[in-house]
Write a structure and sequence with these properties.
95 residues, flat, mainly alpha, single chain
């Protein structure tokens, strides 16, 4: 019976805390948005040069990683599978 009474203490007399701003802002229109300036082709070309440079660096890094792995023997890809299984003395062979 005490719980509803305790819960009502925070909203005594129909008031509650509100940290929200009561300012009323004007509606945003198309005139408030930024408009493009300058030559778009020049900015596009600069971005494409940057992206192509990053692509080239990535391809060179991948190629270098694969070449280093091949040189060190990390990429064997199971090419040394024997024709016959190994003979292990501790295995039981039924004859």
């Amino acid at each position: 019976m005490q719980a509803p009474k305790l819960l009502r203490l925070g909203t005594r007399f129909g008031q509650s805390r509100s940290y929200a701003s009561r300012d009323i802002f004007p509606a945003t229109t198309m005139n408030d948005l930024p408009s493009p300036r300058g030559n778009w082709q020049k900015a596009y070309d600069q971005n494409q040069q940057k992206y192509n440079r990053h692509l080239l660096i990535g391809i060179i890094s991948l190629g270098g990683t694969l070449a280093f792995g091949q040189y060190c023997g990390f990429h064997r890809m199971y090419d040394d599978i024997p024709d016959t299984p190994a003979v292990i003395a501790s295995y039981k062979v039924e004859e």
